[in-house]
Amino acid sequence: MSRRVLMLAYDFPPRGATGVVRVAKFARYLPEFGWQPVVVAATVRGGLRDEGLLAQLPPDLEIIRVDNPLAPRESLLAAHSARPSWQARLRRALRQLVVPDAQIIWAMRAARVAAERLKRGDIDALFSTAPPFSVHMAALLLKRRAPTLPWLMDLRDIWSEHPAIKHVGYYRLQRACEAACLRAADHITTATDGQRALLRESFGVAAERISTITNGFDPADLPPPALPPAREALRITYVGSIVGNRAAATRGFFDALRRLAAAGVTQADLQVRLIGIFDPEIYAWAAPLAGLARLESFVPQADAYAAMADANVLLLLASDDREGRLSHPNKLFEYWGAGRPILAIAPPGDTARLVRESGAGIAVAPADVDGIAAALRQLIADHREGRLAYGVDRERLRPFERRELTRQLAALLDSIAS
Predict the structure, then answer these.
(1) How far apart, in whole angstroms, are the C-alpha atoms of residue 260 and residue 234?
(2) Entry pTM
(3) CA angle, 51 then 19 then 128, to 5°
């Protein structure tokens, strides 16, 4: 007989965003391992949408939507554009004044709605995933109301130790919130071993209370393996967001492109296709490179996978800070599944190590403009000579398939609920 897990997640299909995929796949595959999800998520009010992700979920999945009256009605693309509106700029500034984040009002409402759902007496475990980190504050409130309900706390990103947090007072408040959640949770999962090590070092979390469940890919979503279309120019494609510290770390890549353009490289040799959400500086850096670099808006997951299959090389970007060293972009595993060589612009750490150890491609530090330019020249030459390696080692990638990762989550739920 299946048990039920109450899943708290601010973003959930049909919301279209990178962080949505992890929890959506958990909800899709948990029933195979004896757990029936009951999802409490935010109402989708405008913004990016991906109806395809919603269509993948079980038709009988119970989803309880909670409205966030403070959610922006404009699209995320409008907030991250060449010229963001004054409202978007104001919201970005105000985020540094709210603890733990701008979704805290929603979290309090979600906690009340979830508490009502708990009264039916059929929930066996609680699962929360963040960011936004207010989701964990909602779970903390539920845990205090129902102390015997086992709680699994999923951290997809670094919280209080994030390098973007500069102000000492703001850091202390964030750290206090995180510490309270870590103490109360029965088990914690992180998306990388680096994040897990950081929590153990910074908060003294016992080894037996914390596990890593990486991000991954779903073979069912990917097109059948095939060679990219024949073309003279090398096509390098990036899919995802380039915002915040990741945007700043991309400066070296654009400097390398400018260097190649000055040396006579044209779009007949190289085409860089960037698909997603971008901070204003990305538009500014790409503008002089109209022949080499093209920016395209966010697309649904199925279209993103088609763009990966159309590429000769996939570009992976990580921020040049603690987050970039300890975390890895969600797209890494999907890139592996697509079977294309990877050019990773990443500092020494998890991302660079995984790319090198897997033999999937090249990793260059974000500030190493000479190294990036040399890597691009080498890739252009390899493409011309037919030396680029395409293909997927399915056995090596099996541990990173979404079904297998969900099996790991179910095992942890079994453990804390027993």
Answers:
(1) 14
(2) 0.89
(3) 105
